[in-house]
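Q: What would this complex look like in 3D?
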Amino acid sequence: MDASTREQALELASQFEKGWISRRAFIRMLTALGLSVSAAGLFADTALAAERSEESKAATNHTLVIDPAKCTGCLSCAMACADKFMQEIAPEAAQDTINLEFSRIRPMRFQFVDFVDVCQHCELIEWAEGSRKHPCETVCPTGALHTVPEGEGKPGYTGGGYMSVDRKKCLGIDMCGRCLEVCEQQFGSGIFFDPLEGKAQVCTRCGGDPACVRACPEEGALRFIPVLVNGRYYANTPDEAAEMLYRKMFNQGRDL
Amino acid sequence: MADTYGYTGKIARVDLSSGSVSTLKPPEEVYRKYLGGWALGMYYLLREGLADPDADPMGPENMLQLLVGPVTGISPNARTAIVTKSPYGFNCTTLCGGQGGSNLKFAGWDGIQIVGKADKPVYLAIVDQDIEIRDAGDYWGMGAEEAEMALRKQVLAPLEQSGSKLSPEDMTEKWADLRPPGEKGIGAKRLASAWVIGPAGENRVWFANMVTEGARAHGRYGSGAIAGSKHLKGIVVRGTKGQKFADKKKFLRISRGIREREGKSHFWRSYGTAGISAKESNVLGGYPIRNWQWESWADPKTVKTLSGPFMDRLSFVRKQSCPGCALHCLYPTEVTSKKSFLDGTITDMPDWEAMGMVGGNIGYLETGDMDPGDPYSGTTEDMVQNAAKSQYTTRLFDNQGMDFIEGGALLGLLMELRQRDLISPADLDDIDIRWGDVESVRALMVRVVHRRGVGEVLARGTYETARHFSRKKGDEGIMYYSITGKRYAQPAHGTRSNHDRNALEYVTVVRPCEHTGGGSGAFMKEPIDYEGAVQGQNTTAAINSMVYCLFAGGFWGDEGNVELVRAVTGWSDFSKQEFLRVGERAYALSRLFNLHALNVKNPRQEWDSPSMFPRRWFEEPLPTGPYKGKAAFGGDSAKLFDQALPQYWKQRGWSADKGIPTRDKLAELGLTDIAEDIASRLRG
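A: Here is my prediction, written as structure tokens for the whole assembly.
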């Protein structure tokens, strides 16, 4: 494929991806560019994903920001996250299963309010608390919960100061659970435990290109943007957060 | 089933009398034949012998089934179906959205069947394979919303409630620094779903329903009364197991396509069903106004009050979706009003049926002395206040757990009887119920919910109430104002213009007088397209057996109905024909169930007869609107009942004299073993 054909093909691919043209039309147009039918089909299936991961740059200093007025609680983010991480943690079962328990982002439905539960990326404050680490990271006795320094990590997963869990080191919910305990005591409820071994799962921001953001069908509901906010100032447990949202949206306090 | 994809292969059976829980494992051919939801539910109702006229709907023998389908779980537009025997005696098949269906599948169940009767209030707590019958004494009497919020807190997966693992020895100085004293533990996540009944269900109001997520209801035919009769306050489920697919890649590709197509639907994504009111109903002639005396306001300005754009600007706060859905048709709203009991009401929009039935139908939109044929006399402020009345009434019905279609018809009946001086306030415990009077609506519905005074009569619904007053007053003419089809309320779609719904559709649907039958478009054609109508009805019934949302049907198409089922279940030869057959089975079984359960000997006289439907359709031409002067079937009910109906039955392979599926038809559908016995008795 020469460069201009490639460019046109990618443009078509993006139209296809956005749903403006059907798969059938996409393949027909590709063949018009000179691709064979089978090559076009293959392109539709594979090249698209490859191109995207090649092009997308892991964003640093970005935060997941949720607009609760735009979020509809449709669970698309959780489905995408669960699928992605189940493939990492339980690749065999993931071949035919999607289980939301592997998701690190969970919309929770309260009455007329949806709260999206996800790690809010809290940091301790050095002058007051003697450390700038994440609280969960601080209390992890084995160092399983750790921050991946910028530029490190697996290919396509280069971090940006995001957290990750070393599953070999994590003791799991049955032995430890300190990370979630400190999170729920003071911050939010950002740690999840996988249903197989009960080991901690925390949002890694996919190393800078979050699958949940790509899956969200509501424009502006879930964004990954360069806002520098210490999560400890806005993380709340799901019920408290939902009650606050309820006040904001419906001007009433209510025990949710 | 050997390897279960899509399905879990298990249905839980709970006997509330004995407190026992067992597991039913339907064979694969049963799943394939009935899919789930409606058709599967009817199959079990018949097997259970509930078609027997002596089987008491409110007795312990009745079975309340909460069912999902093959794709329910991760796929878009998941719903649940409740299938049971209605307090009205026919089948109660009623569907509802929300996250609960997915949660039930993730817990490892394709459904729950509940029989028996608990001796005290209980709720079911389901966490994966563990099903507990728990005491609900603390929640009995609560409104649906409050009960749901309270119950969902009680059901946590083991991962969420393991408590602290730290012992005092673990408490180093640093850890103690970071961690404040006080109650420690883990359990802030809230991931369970719940279906509950309100006080109306507890008191077995015939049209009580089961509600989830505050404003989603298994709306019609009285599912809540059945739960109430079993002392079942609610069902709470938290599933952690996910869903298995035969071909996950294909499943993801198709479901992404569905979601993308939905994402481009500006009709749904703008106002949901509230977009129907001004644009379709008032223009096509189908807005229920004052118990269907009108179907369009003479002044289009009047309808503005209850239209999507107006209510959106006034009160919509956000949008809410069912799993994987980009249509988000539920819009939570906050009401502001000068009347203190309306002010601050939080509800959903209302959606179209409520706008019609507890809006236009009970005279909420007119101001002062105007009638719907007059120019609009109010101000925008009046519109705001009138919308608030409708929103408040919607919330009243949702929170008490009642069908606002049946309730709106009941109120419309009483208001029209009062308008015509056929009843007086003395007949309604001194409540003087007038068009648009929200205070009286509240006062009367509270009596219905608690079956106090005249509420005892009204709690049996519109048709029985009309019968009560017609006997009491010795005036058979009162039945004219019961706008019901086969003893259940006509929903907010009119028949007279023949551009909204077709009268034959309401006559032929087997969930009595349902508005979502799917055959109306073909029935409206001239000449009537019987084949298309039957196919439309079968498609809808099959969708309700697959248990995904009818609103999404157009975005699924054959790709969803066939290819998605193949990808999920692995039935590589599953065909469209087979899909439609499921709907056809649901129709045949429901038809036989209704006739047998109600002991109908001669359907043409007792059931599929003009006496079972509003005479207003035929005898009273539309007084306003673009179809002024029109009546259903040109005003000639004989055309419908004597000519069209037998042809429809013939098209279905049912006998032309009684509308009973023939022996050959039942054999063709593979229903001989469960249905031929009843059918042959009905054939006479």
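A: To summarize the key features: Chain B touches chain A through 61 residues (CB under 8 Å). The first helix of chain B runs from residue 28 to 34.
Q: Very helpful, thank you.
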